[in-house]
Amino acid sequence: MKEISYGVGRGPRMAMITSAFIALQGTALAQEGMPSREEMWRVIQQQQKQIDALKASLAGTEKRVGAAEEKVEATGAVVAQQMEKTSSGPEGWWKNTSIGGYGEMHYNGGRKDEIDFHRFVLFVEHQFTDSIRFFSEVELEHSLAGEGKKGEVELEQAFVEFDLTGTQKAQAGLFLLPIGILNETHEPPTFYGVERNGVETNIIPTTWWEGGVQARGELGRGFSYNLAMHSGLDVPTTGANAFRPRNGRAKVSEAPANDPAITARLRWNGLPGVELGLSGQYQNDITQNADDSEAFLIETHADLRRGPFGFRALYARWDIEGSLAEALGRDEQYGWYAEPSYRFAVPVGEVGVFARYSRWDNTAGDNLDSKFNQLQFGLNYWPHPDVVLKADYQFDDTPSSTSEDDRFNLGVGFQF
Fold first, then answer.
1. Helix count (H) and strand count (E) of the chain?
2. 79-126 pLDDT, tens per residue?
3. pLDDT tens-digit map of 216-262
4. I want to staple 294 with a disulfide (CB 3.0 to 4.6 A). Which of 117, 168, 286, 321 is the partner?
5. What is the DSSP string of 80-131?
6. What is the model's pTM?
């Protein structure tokens, strides 16, 4: 019988059979190692339980975080409330309180030939509410005060101010009277000359404060007003200073209150750099002892600043009734001055030059030579708007009974 051949040798054919057998055997073994469907389902259920537990744990954590955030917000609200209360209470008063001040030192030549730290002043202001505030001003004059010293410590302002409306205010306490140019605004950088002018010093007399009540406000069209009822002057009736207003300031220090005074002012600021003022005062008895010495003060002024040019002018007059004042020749007292100026910029700061002519008479009623005439010229240098260096020269033409004292003056002043 003839042997049939398939074209493949016996050796290769056996290798193929062996390989197929090994592959089948591996597949079977692999199938035997895999979990069954039931086992897979049990694994899936176990994993789902773990996922559910993780979700529950996360929800609890989120709840605790939310509660913690609410506590933090509540604590913050309490702290904010407490801070708001503290800001207006004893622990936070400084947040509504501000301070300021001014000072000046002078050198006066001539016969005087002295140097003097004339005054140092400290302001304190406190805001109680949006409509109630307090102002004060304490001054030390001539550097030292006390027994045997030349200086004084004085309370120049201490009053409470109330807003009645947006434009109307009321004040009660100790305040500067609304008269003249310098009496309310007399910080050294605000005026020319080392010393304050003789008219506002001797006739008005600056600085002049009293205790009482005052209303002030705006009237519209550039007009404003002041109306005050307050303690009055207590002038001496004998001696060299009899019936002189400056010597009648009791400064609200256990001052007699037998005869109060009334002061009124009308002011117009309808144009930039322009102020026109008219003031008046009436006191039934300027001696405070029923001497029947009625006193009337009238004052008017202009304060102009247009570009570099400035001009100030003021007139003030006292009329004092009564035979005693008339006998001393002090029933009429008056004064006036005119002051042109020019102010310009320099590389550092500004310079202003001025001239001022003043005349005043404290004994005009005696028909004798009692006039004081003074001519001054000089300059101010402001290296900063709140710091000033001053120099001036004054020529005095005094009554025959008073010695003349032409002299050179230097000064430094500041405000803050």
1. 4, 16
2. 455 555 544 455 677 889 999 999 999 999 999 999 999 999 999 999
3. 999 999 999 999 999 999 999 999 999 999 999 999 999 999 999 99
4. 321
5. HHHHHHHHTSGGGGGGGEEEEEEEEEEEE-TTT-EEEEEEEEEEEEEESSSS
6. 0.78
- What average pLDDT does the structure give for the chain? 87
Q: How many angstroms separate the CA atoms of 48 and 96, rounded?
A: 65
How many domains is the chain built from? 1
Whether 258 maps to a domain, the answer reads yes
Write down the residue that tokens 């709140």 correspond to: 386
Nearest-angstrom CA–CA distance, 150 and 148: 7
CA 71 to chain centre: 42
Domain range holding 331?
Answer: 161-415
Buried/exposed 248-284: b ≥16 CB within 10 Å, e otherwise: bbbbbeebeeebbbebebbbbeeeeeebbbebebebb
Helix (H, G, I), strand (E, B) or coil at 382: strand
At residue 360's C-alpha, the angle toward residues 354 and 364, to 5°, is 165
Residue 66, token pair as written in the block: 């939310």
The answer to whether position 281 is within a domain reads yes
Tokens of 319: 């009329």
pLDDT of residue 403: 74
Q: Which residues pair with 159 in a beta bridge?
A: 135, 173
Q: Residue 172 is part of a domain; what is its CATH number?
A: 2.40.160.10
Tell me 299's DSSP state.
E
Residue 395: Cβ-neighbour burial (10 angstroms; 0-12, 13-18, 19+): middle
pLDDT at 149: 94
pLDDT tens profile 143-190: 999 999 999 999 999 999 999 999 999 999 999 999 999 999 999 999
Q: Does any domain span residue 242? A: yes
In a domain, 5, yes or no: no
> Which residues are CB-neighbours of 36 under 8 A, at least 6 positions away?
none
